[in-house]
Structures are given as C-alpha cells and as structure tokens.
Fold:
Amino acid sequence: IGTPSAQWEKYQGAPMGTEIECEGWRQEAALRMLNNNLDPEVGEKPEDLVVYGGTGRAARSWDAYDTILESLRTLEDDETLLVQSGKPVGRFTTHERAPRVLIANSNLVGKWDDWDHFHELESKGLIMYGQMTAGSWAYIGTQGIIQGTFETLAEAARQHFPDREGLRGTITVTAGLGGMGGAQPLAVTMNNGVCIAAEVDEDRIDRRLETDYCMEKTDDIDEALELAQAAAAEGDPLSVALHMNAAEMFDELREREFVPDIVTDQTSAHDELEGYYPAGYTVSESEELRQEDPETYVKESLDTMERHVEGILAMQERGAVAFEYGNNIRGQVEEHRNMDDAFDFPGFVPAYIRPLFCRGKGPFRWVALSGDESDIHRTDDAVKELFPEKEHLHRWIDLAQDQVSFQGLPSRVCWLGYQSGDDPDDLTERARFALRINDLVAEGEISAPVVVTRDHLDAGSVASPNRETEAMQDGSDAVADWPILNALLNTSAGADIVSVHDGGGVGIGNSLHTNNHVVLDGSSLAAEKARRVFTTDPGMGVIRHADAGYEEALEEAAESNVHVPMADA
Ligand code: NAD
Structure:
C-alpha cells in the first residue's frame, strides 16, 4: 500500500467548517467522509488504510488515496467518479441528478469468490477488502453501531427477561472490543446490565476505556467475575474488559461453573488469518507467526474458534441465552472443522432484528459536515419534534447525548423505517426526517450540509446467509439479486454515493451488500433526491421481506402503499 500519504498526515481527519475544497458539497462530502474514515480517532489502523472489521480498508493504496482526493477536488457537478476496490479507475460526464461517486469493492465471480483467490489478487494489488462501511466511506466509528447493538440487546431483554427493566441484574459475556465490538459494553450498560468482554489486544481495551465505551479492565478472570457478580446483585450497570483470549475465557468459566445470562461474540472471526487471534499467543507473537507461517496461524486460529464455539454452546446448554453477533464464527467452524452443531445457536438477525427489517426499519445515520457538535444537537431536537409519539426513540436520543462520545465528524444514528401511511403523498419516516434536516440547513439553523448514510446491514440491502438473510422463511437466504437491485435503485433515485461490496461482516464469498449517501445541502435538488432515495431504499426492505412471505412485510406494504406486483395482483 506504500507509505502514508503526506495529505493524510496533514488532514488527520476530515476537514471541517463551511469552506470547501471541491467544486460542490456533494464532492466535498465524499472527500470529508473518506478522511473521516481515516481519522485516527475513528478508524482502527488508519496508517495501514484499515478502518475496522479485520482489514476493511478505505482505499487500495496511498497512491490511490491521493488520486481519489485529487479527482474529488476537480470533479464537476455533472461528473461521476468510478472507484474499483479502493482505486479510482474512471470518470465520466453523467448528469447533475446522478451519483457523484460509484464504488464496487471486493467483488469476485462466484466460482472464484473465496479468501484464497481474494488474497492472491490482493497480493498482486488488484483488489481490496472493503468490509461494509470502510470501503464506502461511511464508517463513523463505534458511535455508528452503538444503537444497533443497544436495540439488539433491548430486544433480547424484552424476549428473555421481560420483568427486568432491560438487562438489569443480568451478566452478558462477550469478546472483541474492536471498531464494532467496542460498542458492546456501552450497549449493555445503557440497557442497565453488566458486561464482561474478553479482548486480547490491550491497546483496543485502552481505547474503549478512554472513550467511555467501557468502564473497567483487568487480566484476572476472578476479579472480573467478582466485580460483575457484585454489580449484578445490586442491579448496577457495569462493564469490564478482560484482557484474555475468548476461547481461554470460556474454558476458565466452565472450570468455575459460571453461567452468564447472555453469551455472544464480536471478534473478527470472519477472517481466520488477519482478524482472529489464536489462543496461547500474545498479540505480538501472533503477528510474528502470521508473517512467518501463515498456514500454522490459520490452523491455530481455527482450532481456537472451535474451542470458542464449544464454550458458547456449553454455556447455552447450561441455560445462557446465546446468539452469534454477525462475525460468521459458526460458519467458520462448520466449514473448516466439520462442527455439525455450530448452528445450534441463532444469529442475531433472525433472533431479534428481522421484524424490524420487514417494516423497512434500519440504521439511518447522519453526519454534520461542519464538524460542529451543535449541528447534531439541533438534529436531535428535530427528530424528537418530528416523532413525538416514539418514546423509545426519545430515550435513545437522551442516552446517546449523555453517554456516546463523538468521534471525528459528529454523527448520530437512529433506526427509522418506512411507515408512510396509505396516502401516496405521505412520506416515509426516513424521508420526513431527511427533508426536515434539509430545511434546517436551508434556514441556516444547521451551519453546513449534513450527509445521511446507513450501514450496509439494512432491511433491503444485503444477502448474507449466515447473518442478515439467515433462515429466511422461503429459503431465499443466498439469493443475491436483492442487493444488486438495491444499488441500481439507489443510483436511479439519485443517491450521491452508491457502493456494492462482497464479503462484509462475514468474509469473502459470504455476502453481497450495498450502501448509499445523500448530501443534504438545503437545496431543492437535495430535497428531491432525499424524497426519492428514502422512499425507495427502505421500500426495498419491505418488498424483499414481502416477497419472502413475511406477514409483517405484507402488512406494511398494504398499510404504506408499497407496490408488490405479485401480492397486489
Ligand atoms: P475489529 O477487527 O476492529 O476488532 C476485532 C477485535 O477482536 C480486535 O480487537 C481483536 O483483538 C479481537 N480478537 C480477535 N480474536 C480474538 C480472540 N480470540 N479473543 C479475544 N479477542 C479477539 O472488528 P470489528 O469492527 O469490531 O468487528 C468484529 C466482528 O463483528 C467482525 O467479524 C465484523 O465483521 C462483525 N460485525 C458485526 C456487526 C454487527 O452489526 N453485528 C457489524 C459490523 C461488523
């Protein structure tokens, strides 16, 4: 990838304020979002162009990064830049309503769609792993995933501990305190519970402590258990990072006959070579082994995953609620270790999230390009004013204001959906809110444009049989036409950046997914785009699940006037 670019050293994050370097705010938004991904406060290893999720990168090389910036600075309002696996490869005159940037990352033809081919091509400099939001310049740090994690745990609490005021008095055991996994301890304590999270890399632990995502750290499991049990007995929220390999932690827990209330995991198990750490090695020993003997590394890493999954299953057998948190650890041990009971615990989507997807609900997030925190506070007020009846949303905004530190460009995330009502002129929840932000920018109440983006994990944007589309009721888990239609529709509707990736979350060959950005600069063009994109994009979630026969989705389609031709007929 070359040596870090002088421009990146100079930026140290996104440019802020109201002066722009590019020809327009749409191009400027792309430039700021790319640099925001690589802000040392936001990305996990920006000096290696790595943003999060194992090796999820924002650009293929430092030369590619420099050329992307140069291209964005001179891109006209009627041009579109094409980015192929993190490298700018072309630029065409299109038109003002078209996207300014189109991105495709990590995609391989079916028969070649696996890590081996990917690594071979990567070593020749031909492809890049874009994860989900890394390669689409939409990563906003741990603050971006926190509400999803909070909602998942809130739903788990509702289903399994209905009398407990969220997770109060319960202990959740998990692992992985990286870019996404780092949200877990805070999401547990926001739900009033206690969390023990194993993490092998002490630097990652310290990062979560510094940003208040986690409260305590120890490398002594007995101390972790004592602290956790005392807090749970009092009903106090507490999070403890345990400096230890996850598989070793589960062995120790079994030895002590300790059974938590909930077990899950967010280590980067989707990538056995560069994401997951084998037991018995420190981080630096692991890195040495990875360099010197990658084959042994992979073997040890998969052996550790097997132990890790056995530990989760043992806890489940003894009464813990277990779910996989989207890192494909079950798929890995089923495929590489023939573990036929690996899927005896569910993934988090079928367990807790799918009913929301049926209604087109997903992680709607917005970023203040000014860098001014008060712009986000104004949007916090706006979302409450617009949805006065949504108590849960108000609680989330209050908690987020109080407990979630901003990283890089200030941002917020809220799960919003379709729910437009049956009048064809009614707007979806997402469109209503986006148009309100656009008005606030036009009125000068927000000091600079706001970019709205979302996770790739959304209602109608992913095919991922071990995660978002696990156990679809019609068996359509692996059908990848849906994300492709989603990207085409986002482009037709005029989103400002559209991307299509392979392998995010669960590893190469295991998923296909898309992302979009819309820049709200207060103009009537932005309003027109927002109205279209925030109808069609969540609408894809409704039709995808209606097509699979989900009652809630068919109901939503009927109530909200979403046309599903075969159901309408
Ligand atoms: P990351 O690579 O930034 O962090 C992973 C962390 O796990 C690292 O800190 C690493 O040190 C630690 N780790 C690895 N092996 C370990 C082991 N055996 N024991 C203890 N710690 C270990 O990744 P991330 O962005 O936090 O994502 C984590 C996983 O979750 C990935 O597989 C990712 O694809 C998946 N993911 C899930 C969601 C979701 O919504 N659930 C969203 C994004 C990503």
Summary: Residues 6-142 form a domain with the Urocanase fold fold (CATH 3.40.1770.10).
